[in-house]
Specification:
This protein is an alpha+beta fold and about 140 residues long. The protein has 6 helices and 5 strands, in the order αβαββααββαα. The protein has a single domain, classed as CBS-domain (Roll). It starts with a helix and ends with a helix. The mean pLDDT is about 90.
Length: about 140
Protein backbone atom coordinates (compact mmCIF):
# COMPACT_ATOMS: atom_id res chain seq x y z
CA UNK A 1 0.00 0.00 0.00
CA UNK A 2 2.20 2.78 -1.22
CA UNK A 3 -0.60 5.35 -1.48
CA UNK A 4 -1.31 7.28 1.72
CA UNK A 5 -4.53 6.31 3.46
CA UNK A 6 -5.95 9.84 3.38
CA UNK A 7 -5.23 10.19 -0.35
CA UNK A 8 -6.97 6.88 -1.02
CA UNK A 9 -10.00 7.90 1.06
CA UNK A 10 -10.23 11.29 -0.65
CA UNK A 11 -11.07 9.45 -3.89
CA UNK A 12 -14.00 7.59 -2.30
CA UNK A 13 -17.55 8.94 -2.53
CA UNK A 14 -18.37 11.26 0.36
CA UNK A 15 -22.02 11.62 1.32
CA UNK A 16 -23.06 15.08 2.51
CA UNK A 17 -26.00 17.02 3.87
CA UNK A 18 -27.33 20.46 3.06
CA UNK A 19 -27.95 23.00 5.79
CA UNK A 20 -31.62 22.81 4.75
CA UNK A 21 -31.86 19.09 5.54
CA UNK A 22 -33.89 17.87 8.50
CA UNK A 23 -33.11 15.36 11.23
CA UNK A 24 -35.27 12.86 9.39
CA UNK A 25 -33.06 13.25 6.31
CA UNK A 26 -29.95 12.82 8.45
CA UNK A 27 -31.16 9.58 9.99
CA UNK A 28 -32.34 8.25 6.62
CA UNK A 29 -29.02 8.98 4.90
CA UNK A 30 -26.89 7.59 7.73
CA UNK A 31 -28.92 4.39 7.61
CA UNK A 32 -29.08 4.15 3.81
CA UNK A 33 -25.33 4.59 3.31
CA UNK A 34 -24.35 2.69 6.49
CA UNK A 35 -22.12 5.51 7.69
CA UNK A 36 -21.62 7.25 11.00
CA UNK A 37 -21.30 10.92 10.05
CA UNK A 38 -21.75 13.41 7.22
CA UNK A 39 -20.46 16.93 6.60
CA UNK A 40 -23.06 19.66 6.29
CA UNK A 41 -22.64 22.00 3.31
CA UNK A 42 -23.76 25.60 3.01
CA UNK A 43 -26.39 26.16 0.32
CA UNK A 44 -24.74 29.47 -0.50
CA UNK A 45 -21.20 28.37 -1.41
CA UNK A 46 -21.07 24.59 -0.80
CA UNK A 47 -18.48 25.08 1.97
CA UNK A 48 -18.48 22.73 4.93
CA UNK A 49 -20.22 24.44 7.85
CA UNK A 50 -20.50 21.50 10.23
CA UNK A 51 -20.67 17.75 10.69
CA UNK A 52 -23.44 15.52 12.02
CA UNK A 53 -22.77 12.12 13.53
CA UNK A 54 -24.81 9.32 15.02
CA UNK A 55 -23.52 10.57 18.36
CA UNK A 56 -25.04 14.02 17.71
CA UNK A 57 -28.40 12.41 16.94
CA UNK A 58 -28.25 10.22 20.03
CA UNK A 59 -27.38 13.19 22.23
CA UNK A 60 -30.30 15.16 20.83
CA UNK A 61 -32.79 12.28 21.18
CA UNK A 62 -31.63 11.73 24.76
CA UNK A 63 -32.58 15.32 25.61
CA UNK A 64 -36.16 14.72 24.39
CA UNK A 65 -35.84 17.49 21.83
CA UNK A 66 -36.01 15.32 18.71
CA UNK A 67 -38.40 16.43 15.97
CA UNK A 68 -38.19 14.97 12.46
CA UNK A 69 -38.54 18.35 10.78
CA UNK A 70 -35.88 20.14 12.85
CA UNK A 71 -32.97 21.57 10.86
CA UNK A 72 -29.69 19.67 10.85
CA UNK A 73 -27.97 22.93 11.82
CA UNK A 74 -29.51 22.63 15.31
CA UNK A 75 -27.48 19.53 16.19
CA UNK A 76 -24.40 19.67 13.96
CA UNK A 77 -20.95 20.16 15.42
CA UNK A 78 -19.62 23.48 14.16
CA UNK A 79 -16.07 23.35 15.51
CA UNK A 80 -14.61 21.18 12.77
CA UNK A 81 -11.47 19.16 13.22
CA UNK A 82 -10.19 18.45 9.72
CA UNK A 83 -7.11 17.12 7.99
CA UNK A 84 -5.50 17.63 4.62
CA UNK A 85 -3.94 14.94 2.43
CA UNK A 86 -0.70 14.80 4.42
CA UNK A 87 -1.24 13.12 7.81
CA UNK A 88 0.12 9.68 8.50
CA UNK A 89 -2.00 6.95 10.07
CA UNK A 90 -0.27 7.63 13.40
CA UNK A 91 -1.16 11.32 13.18
CA UNK A 92 -4.77 10.41 12.35
CA UNK A 93 -4.94 8.16 15.41
CA UNK A 94 -3.59 10.99 17.56
CA UNK A 95 -6.21 13.43 16.20
CA UNK A 96 -9.02 10.92 16.77
CA UNK A 97 -7.84 9.96 20.26
CA UNK A 98 -6.96 13.44 21.52
CA UNK A 99 -10.21 14.98 20.30
CA UNK A 100 -12.44 11.98 21.12
CA UNK A 101 -13.93 11.97 17.62
CA UNK A 102 -14.68 9.22 15.12
CA UNK A 103 -14.73 11.11 11.81
CA UNK A 104 -12.43 13.66 10.20
CA UNK A 105 -13.34 15.60 7.05
CA UNK A 106 -10.49 15.71 4.52
CA UNK A 107 -10.16 19.32 3.31
CA UNK A 108 -7.89 21.22 0.96
CA UNK A 109 -8.37 24.99 0.65
CA UNK A 110 -11.93 24.88 2.06
CA UNK A 111 -12.87 22.12 -0.41
CA UNK A 112 -14.25 18.85 0.95
CA UNK A 113 -12.36 15.88 -0.49
CA UNK A 114 -13.72 13.06 1.67
CA UNK A 115 -13.92 11.61 5.16
CA UNK A 116 -11.70 9.49 7.38
CA UNK A 117 -13.38 7.33 10.02
CA UNK A 118 -11.83 5.54 12.95
CA UNK A 119 -12.87 2.32 11.20
CA UNK A 120 -10.83 3.28 8.13
CA UNK A 121 -7.76 3.82 10.30
CA UNK A 122 -8.19 0.59 12.26
CA UNK A 123 -8.74 -1.44 9.07
CA UNK A 124 -5.61 0.09 7.55
CA UNK A 125 -3.56 -0.83 10.64
CA UNK A 126 -4.92 -4.39 10.63
CA UNK A 127 -4.10 -4.82 6.93
CA UNK A 128 -0.59 -3.44 7.45
CA UNK A 129 -0.08 -5.85 10.33
CA UNK A 130 -1.27 -8.77 8.21
CA UNK A 131 1.03 -7.84 5.31
CA UNK A 132 4.06 -7.35 7.55
CA UNK A 133 3.51 -10.63 9.32
CA UNK A 134 2.74 -12.82 6.30
CA UNK A 135 5.97 -14.74 6.71
CA UNK A 136 5.26 -15.47 10.36
CA UNK A 137 1.67 -16.53 9.62
CA UNK A 138 2.84 -18.84 6.83
CA UNK A 139 5.39 -20.39 9.14
CA UNK A 140 2.82 -20.91 11.93
CA UNK A 141 0.21 -22.33 9.55
CA UNK A 142 2.79 -24.73 8.11
CA UNK A 143 3.35 -26.44 11.47
Amino acid sequence: MSEKLVTKLSKRKCFTLSENDTLKTVSEKLQKHNIGAMPVLSTQDNNVIGIVSERDLARYIFNDKFKNDLSVTKIMSKNLITCNLNPSVTELMEIITNNKIRHIPIMEEKKLLGMVSIGDVVNYIINQYKEENQYLRDYINKY
